[in-house]
Amino acid sequence: MTSESNHNYxxxxxxxxxxxGNIGASHASSALSKMMGTDVMIDVTESVxxxxxxxPEAFGDREMKxxxxxxxxxxxxxxxxxxxxxxxxxxxxxxxxxxxxxxxGRELDDDDMAALSEIGNICASAYLSAISDFLGNMLLPxxxxxxxxxxxxVLELPAALAAETSNFAVLxxxxxxxxxxxxxxxxxxxxxxxxxxxxxxxFEELGL
Amino acid sequence: MLMTDDVRNGNGLVRxxxxxxxxxxxxxxxxxxxxxxxxxxYTVPAPQMxxxxxxxxxVGIAIYDVRAGVAGLAHAMLPRFDxxxxxxxxxxxxxxxxxxxxxxLIERGATKANxxxxxxxxxxxxxxxxxxxxxxxxxxxxxxxxxxxxERIPLVAEDVGGTKGRTVRFNxxxxxxxxxxxxxxxxI
Lengths: 208, 188
What we know:
heterodimer, A: alpha+beta, Chemotaxis protein chec, seven-stranded antiparallel beta sheet, globular, disordered N terminus, B: alpha+beta, CATH 3.30.1330.200, five-stranded mixed beta sheet, 4 helices, 10 strands, about 30% strand
């Protein structure tokens, strides 16, 4: 993730992508906070361009077990969205949504999976609609799909899908903070090539 | 060689039902273990070990010649070189990586007729509605099998598909392939 791998994006354009990610994620977190009735905070957004095969190792420990919610982001083509959170955070979220007493360290059941896919749905819808407004082009999330697995393994899917159309992936990642969970979750958005072009055009219009 | 302090002290798992000379224990951290990253492949002489961490939709293709004591492990991400965008890296695709890996193994002293293969991975990490076109994992493993057949390399064992990610380790000494799904180990 060095500057040479930043393909043909300028620092300025990457900053703009980062800002866009911030806007998307803040909409997502406020939608989530509203649904749950407690605050979910967002942290700084990072935007990087890297080779698609480096995506699975871009965020540290590949063997860490996480909850991952995957959605397609249908725009001009198909972009990808992944919401990743540590298991403890997912359980807390799910307990709040299902109105159950908080129980730490338990196994995830079907109700949890349903609650988590709803979280994915809400986050992605809010995120993408904010970006749609900016882009002037509709972006719609697909049905969410939830899994609990190794971080590296879940990241392989968006990486492979992105690799089908490009050598480089644009990663826009915002950390989610919630109630003392030390390891943050994150929202990751990989815009498709056409949406990237549209975004760059938009940035140009704005004089970036 | 593999009897590190960990094993001597009994800190490693003991490989169940093994009559092999080497007690290979997956939990032990082995110094001579090469981690094969996504879209990479390595060929090594025994007793060097090879591993792939977090194989999801990617497929881990191991090709080996026990007699010559060489083996290669590839971590392929997409099915076909011809359909791919990146023409720089043959290791990215399940078909092209087999060709280049076989060439390299032969350079290292393997005999083509003695080569055997084992594959693992190709999981469908997420359930989709339109699963067929999106199931990259299945396409990866299918193309790998097809290519091995074309190259006339017998596929002696496989553990593909499913919905879970795998961490795999290949031992060129005896050709054993350990597969870890969650906390469970199996050998093929």
